[in-house]
Amino acid sequence: MRKAEIIRNTNETKIKLNLNLDGSGISHIKTGCGFMDHMLTLFAKHGRFDLDISCQGDTEVDYHHTVEDIGIALGSAFSEAVGDKKGIVRYGYFILPMDEALILSAVDISGRACLRYDLDGLTEKVGDFDTELVEEFWQGFVRKAEVSLHIKKMDGTNTHHIIEGAFKSVARSFKQAVSIDMDYKDEIPSTKGVL
Fold this sequence. Notes:
Layout: E1 3-9, E2 13-20, E3 27-30, H1 34-47, E4 50-57, H2 64-82, E5 91-98, E6 101-108, E7 114-118, E8 125-126, E9 129-130, H3 133-145, E10 148-155, H4 159-178
Parallel strand pairs: 3-4, 7-10
Antiparallel strand pairs: 1-2, 2-4, 5-6, 6-10, 8-9
Helix pairs in contact: 1-4, 2-3
């Protein structure tokens, strides 16, 4: 089983995170931010990752530190759980429709951190959640996971649908990318011999 446990404590957040890449989509999420709990729950479900996250953050300030640090912790967990990357498919992509929203995501587990984020036209908030924090989450994730990740809105007007579609699409892209190609299970999927 490809698993990771991350404990990240700062003056702003205290996070405990457990990830199993070969799970069944079971999650227990308690971040102190209802919208983030919702996004991470569906991320686990659509990626078929078992994911437990507890976070105590300075939410009396806002959700910024909580969201960014969870992204960092989750990225660290993915990096640890894929290990030496032997046998992984490496690439994944998914186009996900959610009502009027249509979201494209693509990932390369490359060992290089790159985020291309294009979810334009979002309203400033969904409930009490600042939507600019979605990019902060993925930026923190990508830096620690060391992956190239593209997220693009192809259509959509409802901010909740767009963001939710993005989390679902990315989850399904990662599910594909981290899966083991049994024909090449002992090989690193790179001509360099390392990722």
